[in-house]
Write a structure and sequence with these properties.
The structure holds two protein chains of two kinds.
Chain A lengths: L3 E4 L2 E5 L4 E7 L3 E9 L5 E7 L2 E5 L2 E6 L4 E6 L8 E9 L7 E2 L3 E6 L1
Parallel strand pairs in A: 2-11
Antiparallel strand pairs in A: 1-3, 3-8, 4-5, 4-9, 6-7, 7-8, 9-10, 9-11
Chain B lengths: L3 E4 L2 E4 L5 E7 L5 E8 L3 E10 L2 E4 L7 E2 L9 E3 L8 E8 L10 E2 L3 E5 L1
Parallel strand pairs in B: 2-11
Antiparallel strand pairs in B: 1-3, 3-8, 4-5, 4-9, 5-6, 7-8, 9-10, 9-11
The chains are: A mainly beta, B mainly beta.
Chain lengths: 110, 115
């Protein structure tokens, strides 16, 4: 079993829909990261959080440390949100290492 | 502009021909890392470095070497590339924060094909 599990693996939505991507992990962490990778593109960091909730534009990330679970929400989704979303955790050993989930491929149709 | 650069971006080579993929960051980050990304396997760490002259193996180090002689550079060396090293490679850098390392900045990726 992977230490970081994401669901769903693939997601298709209509423009304007509210989207949720989930991430569960089984190790102790110091932080959780949400990353975005566009087709053929590089990887950018969307959020790094260790508790509570963060918001940036239409994106919201939440984490529940007790339940070892995080969610990434996209409000009013748009075709330009189509990308792979990757959850990664920084283990408590704090060596800088990241453990990655498999990614969620999101397609938003106009 | 704060960035991580990688060169080359694309490379097709043949089995056994030594190659180096360069990585450079201009943010004075202590931590640098190499990852490979393969379909169905996601991102996996190859090697990382917590500072100059300090490197360590990640999850899939076989067939790779690294060096960290300067803070800004972290080259990935394939002494004798094989077809199973065909992959998309990312370099990343970060700095230590209060409780955890800060967000990682990723390079644009290097797509390597070994024939």
């Amino acid at each position: 079993k992977n230490e970081v599990e994401q669901s769903p693996q693939n997601l298709t939505a209509q423009e304007g829909e509210f989207i949720t991507i989930n991430c569960s992990y089984s190790v102790g962490i110091s932080a959780l990261h949400w990353l975005q990778q566009h087709p053929g593109g590089g990887i950018v960091s969307l959020f790094m959080l260790s508790s509570g909730k963060k918001k940036h534009g239409r994106l919201i990330a939440t984490i529940n440390i007790q339940e070892k679970h995080s969610s990434l929400h996209i409000t009013a989704s748009h075709p330009r949100d189509s990308a792979v979303y990757i959850c990664a955790v920084s283990p408590q050993s704090n060596t800088g290492k990241l453990i990655f989930g498999q990614g969620t491929t999101l397609q938003v149709k106009p | 502009e704060a960035q991580v650069t990688q060169n080359p971006r694309y490379l097709i080579t043949v089995t056994g021909k030594k190659l180096t993929v360069t990585c450079s960051q201009n943010m004075n980050h202590e931590y640098m890392s190499w990852y490979r990304q393969d379909p169905g396997l996601g991102l996996r760490q190859i090697y990382y470095s917590m500072n100059v002259e300090v490197t360590d193996k990640g999850d899939v180090p076989e067939g790779y070497k690294v060096s960290r002689k300067e803070k800004r550079n972290f080259p990935l060396i394939l002494e004798s590339p094989s077809p199973n090293q065909t992959s998309l490679y990312f370099c990343a850098s970060s700095s230590p924060g209060l409780l955890s390392y800060n967000e990682q900045f990723f390079g644009p990726g290097t797509r390597l094909t070994v024939l």
